From TrEMBL, chain A:
This is Branched-chain amino acid transport system permease protein. The keyword Cell membrane applies. Belongs to the binding-protein-dependent transport system permease family. LivHM subfamily. One of its GO terms (biological process) is amino acid transport.
From TrEMBL, chain B:
The keyword Signal applies. Residues 1-24 form the signal peptide. Belongs to the leucine-binding protein family. It holds the Pfam family Peripla_BP_6. InterPro entries: BCAA_transport, Leu-bd, Peripla_BP_I. Residues 29-369 form the Leucine-binding protein domain. This is Branched-chain amino acid transport system substrate-binding protein. Keywords: Amino-acid transport, Signal, Transport. It comes from Rhodopseudomonas rhenobacensis. It comes from the Bacteria. One of its GO terms (biological process) is amino acid transport.
Length: 291, 406
């Protein structure tokens, strides 16, 4: 196959777009794992709920995309907070396996309920008028909406990183994970902080769901299809590392895009091949902290 | 209770001697609806096919004549090994007589071989590969609703004639995609067109942008989507985004179901051409059936052609059983009887079953309505052309089925 430079650029850009979703989702996972020590297998289902929330806001209440970007993450985040208060908080001190089983089960239940009522082929959600159309970049036709997704998710990712690594609130959070008892002694309400963190992680997933609604179908299985890849991203990037998960998310999107160009049949396995390699060479992930 | 005992005796007899099995007729039937119950083909077949089977049982009138008919369902998850295991268990342990639906050609080809070995019956409605009635045909299999030859010759020929001289394929990387690409290529070349390239994508892909960019760069007039279900709707939706239609290229959704059109939405799907053998809004009978079907579906969808095919195939199967006066549990014998009898049911009208196991009936070339033309939910298709049964499917003299060689 002759390498066409234009096509290559196009694939890089497309990879970057997919990478934005990986980054947003793996960031949420990283935040939750870092602060709560829970591997949130319900993440895909919550991402799907975000997309459905956008769909309902538009079709039931007539609320458009821009408000959905704010309301859907808040609503789904609230749902996450309820989950954390009623179930997850009780298992935080137990072995990882309990959290895995509980969240995995929750994910399946949520997905099953949606599938029961909406089938599996999904519902249409149109691109907002302001972002319709595209620009011809010379080497490719870039839909404006996809460009928006890249920029917006980058901003959100960096803002989250800043919040956790550079602000006082973030410092408290990180301290609370290191030594909750001591942080409590300073008069900080640790359980509430953890609940809000889970809400934040879930909100990020829902936000990714809203962003993807106009691109993919709003389908009950949309999260299940994506979440496996995202877990591979998290493993490669290193569990619990905020910046690591952002960078790996974007990078793997690009790797996948390139594979789609050079050897499309392998495009949905390449991430896992990389995961195996990373696990063999650096088991804690590229940027991970050793446990 | 009496039936249970006779079934038990039958089971025992079958262990002792196969001949004893065939002679003992009873009035017990067990139907297995094998489908993708929760993945990308679940709306095409899935729970809807199980419901269609149930409705065929209720409408058959056999229950009032003392028959005992049970419908069970299984989830093959689009994996041939899982589908094979379920089929083996159904025949070996659960004493299933007939397997219906089974979308996903990869699974269907595997299941067809097992059912032949078990001398059961396979009434396939969901899978597309025309190999089921060609090289891989079986005396125990009837391929009911559609196949890749029909899709290729319906949509492929029509679009090539309408000026689509050059084609680029986006093909799902498994048995069905390969068969559909092969059959469509033949139809395109026969129509004077040319295939300029193609790319194979993994089954169940959510992002098609890379593949679409390659299709766009090929400058082919028609982009043929040799895939199905969720893959097709994602590809079409994203093609609109990348300006492929406005750039002058035409999309050919080679296999589309009404649920796909529903998922894409008319603003994006309008103008698409494709071939189907059933549309819920075709006549009073199909409307009446669809209404009853919709009322019982949780997601309130209308029946797809696969689901309608399950109903139609079982209706014919029950007619054959009724004519034979009992269930001999001899798959090949019952299938032979079914091939003898002309078919006639409310959903597909009159038709027949060819010796290679291919059920034939007219096919319809549809166009998706504009949003302004649609009167409400599910009012999506305009009929463009009717293809007579004899032209819609592989002519018998071209079929490579070994059963045809005497």
């Amino acid at each position: 196959m002759s390498i066409n430079l234009q096509a290559l650029f196009a694939q890089l850009l497309v990879g970057l777009i997919n990478g934005s979703f990986y980054a947003l989702l793996s960031l949420g996972l990283a935040v939750i794992f870092g602060m709560l020590n829970i591997i949130n297998f319900a993440h895909g289902a919550l991402y799907m709920m975000g997309a459905f929330a956008a769909y309902f806001l538009l079709n039931v209440l007539g609320i458009g995309y821009w408000w959905a970007l704010i309301i859907a993450p808040l609503a789904v985040g609230l749902f996450g907070i309820i989950l954390e208060r009623t179930m997850l908080q009780w298992i935080a001190q137990l072995d990882h396996l309990y959290g895995l089983l509980l969240t995995f089960g929750l994910g399946l239940i949520i997905q099953g309920v949606f599938q029961n009522y909406f089938g599996s082929s999904g519902l249409p959600y149109a691109i907002p008028d302001e972002l319709k159309g595209g620009v011809n970049l010379g080497f490719m036709f870039l839909p404006i909406y996809r460009g928006w997704v890249v920029v917006f998710s980058l901003v959100v990712c960096l803002a989250t990183w800043y919040l956790i690594e550079r602000t006082r609130l973030g410092a408290n959070l990180r301290a609370a994970t290191e030594n909750p008892t001591l942080v409590r002694a300073f008069g900080i309400n640790v359980p509430r902080m953890i609940t809000l963190t889970y809400g934040l992680g879930v909100g990020l997933a829902a936000l990714a769901g809203v962003l993807s609604a106009p691109i993919n179908q709003v389908r009950p299985l949309m999260g299940a299809d994506l979440i496996i890849v995202v877990f591979a991203v998290v493993v490669i990037g290193g569990m619990g590392s905020i910046m690591g998960s952002i960078i790996t998310g974007f990078a793997l999107g690009i790797v996948e895009g390139l594979t789609k160009y050079f050897y499309p049949e392998a495009s949905n396995t390449v991430v896992f091949v990389l995961m195996v390699l990373v696990l063999l060479i650096k088991p804690s992930g590229l940027t991970g902290r050793t446990a | 209770m009496k039936n249970k005992i006779s079934a038990l005796l039958l089971g025992t007899a079958s262990l002792l001697a196969f001949a004893g099995f065939a002679s003992a007729d009873d009035k017990v039937v067990k139907i297995g609806s094998l489908s993708d119950q929760s993945g990308l083909y679940a709306d095409v077949g899935g729970p809807g096919s199980t419901l269609a089977a149930q409705m065929a049982v209720e409408d058959s009138g056999l229950l009032n004549k003392g028959w005992k008919i049970e419908v069970i369902s299984g989830d093959h998850q689009n994996k041939p090994d899982i589908g094979s295991n379920i089929t083996r268990q159904w025949f070996d342990v659960d004493k299933v007589d007939v397997v219906v639906d089974t979308p996903n050609s990869g699974v269907a080809l595997a299941v067809s071989n097992i059912i032949k070995e078990k001398n059961g019956i396979f009434l396939n409605s969901g899978a597309g590969s025309s190999d089921l009635t060609n090289a891989q045909c079986s005396p125990n299999t009837i391929h009911w609703t559609y196949d890749t030859y029909m899709l290729a010759h319906g949509t492929g020929s029509a679009l090539t004639k309408a000026g689509g001289a050059t084609w680029f394929f986006l093909t799902a990387d498994y048995a069905f995609g390969a068969a559909l690409e092969r059959d469509t290529t033949a139809a395109v070349i026969a129509g004077g067109g040319k295939v300029v390239g193609g790319v194979k994508h993994p089954l169940n892909t959510s992002d098609f942008s890379s593949f679409l960019l390659q299709a766009q760069a090929s400058k082919a007039k028609v982009i043929g989507l040799a895939n199905a279900g969720g893959d097709t709707s994602n590809a079409i939706k994203q093609a609109a985004e990348f300006g492929i239609i406005s750039g002058g290229q035409k999309l050919a959704g080679l296999l589309m179901f009404i649920t796909d059109v529903h998922a894409i939405g008319l603003p994006v799907a309008q103008g698409l051409n494709f071939t189907e053998t059933f549309y819920w809004d075709a006549n009073d009978q199909t409307r009446a059936f669809s209404k009853r079907f919709q009322d019982r579906m949780r997601n309130k969808q209308v029946p797809t052609m696969s689901q309608a095919g399950v109903y139609s195939a079982l209706t014919h199967y029950f007619k054959a059983l009724d004519a034979m006066g009992g269930n001999s549990h001899d798959g090949a014998k019952i299938v032979a009887k079914m091939k003898e009898m002309p078919t006639d049911d409310p959903l597909f009208g009159k038709g027949s079953i060819q010796p290679n196991g291919r059920k034939i009936h007219p096919a319809y070339l549809f166009e998706v309505k504009k949003p302004s033309e649609s009167k409400g939910p599910w009012d999506y298709y305009k009929l463009v052309a009717t293809i007579p049964a004899e032209e819609a499917f592989t002519p018998l003299d071209k079929s490579t089925c070994p059963l045809l060689k005497k």
